[in-house]
Design goal:
Layout (H helix, E strand, L loop, with lengths): L4 H23 L8 H25 L3 E5 L3 E3 L3 E12 L1 H5 L6 E8 L2 E9 L4 E6 L4 E3 L2 E2 L12 E4 L9 H12 L4 E3 L4 H9 L5 E5 L3 H13 L3 E3 L7 H4 L1 E5 L1 H14 L1
Parallel strand pairs: 1-3, 9-10, 9-11
Antiparallel strand pairs: 1-2, 3-4, 4-5, 5-6, 6-7, 7-8, 11-13, 12-13
Length: 263
Amino acid sequence: MLRSALLNVMMKAAQKAARVLKRDFGELENLQVSLKGPADFVSAADRRAEKVLKEELMTARPGYSFLGEEGGLTEGSDKSHVWYVDPLDGTTNFLHGIPHFAISIGLARDGALVAGLVYNPITDEMYVAEKGKGAFLNERRIRVSGRQKLTEAVISCGLPHHGRGDLALFRREFSVVQEQVAGIRRFGAAALDLAFIAAGRFDAYWERELSPWDMAAGTLLVREAGGYVTDLDGKDAMFAARNIVAGNETMHSAILRMVQQGA
């Protein structure tokens, strides 16, 4: 894998922010006795990681705009480029000491995704992709799964948060999908769900109530790994619709049809 200057910038930023997250993750054990302490601590960890990412990315590409989960939009002089950054995707997992979370960095040029990175600091798995150049996991080329039978498929999904989202709608969708597939998983980190699709670990994935920084990097990863990504209407408007379905061609079509049936 030949790294471009752009990917080197993104990887350096992710690795620097990862050191912050790994240190803070190691401190969580000391805070579990307090109900308020861990949540406040994780929020601070989130902000610290985003600060590092913003400084690194905007120093390397000073004109680009930056949209982060914590700090919102910082407009740059170059309106054609936007970073989409989630410094800690899988916050609840992090809070509970579950080592399944990631840094997610996506870059769009004139509205089209051109680069993406998803990195789990604990497993040291780094997924990267550039438009037209394929998707990679730690230097190894990855592809979406080749499974064609729903009865052999493992599907990932998201669940509505407490007090947010339409739980009744999700239950209908879940019921339709569950009856036709080998298994359903809910791991709690959208960026990693999409990365797992790109690596062929999951066969398809759907979720509602997402933000652009949750989906940007993973969307490009899946597409560069040979997969399909749309919103739940089958259109390329995931950011506006705030929902997503992804998978290989067969599984994407099947899950899209089933979720629409459940709705």
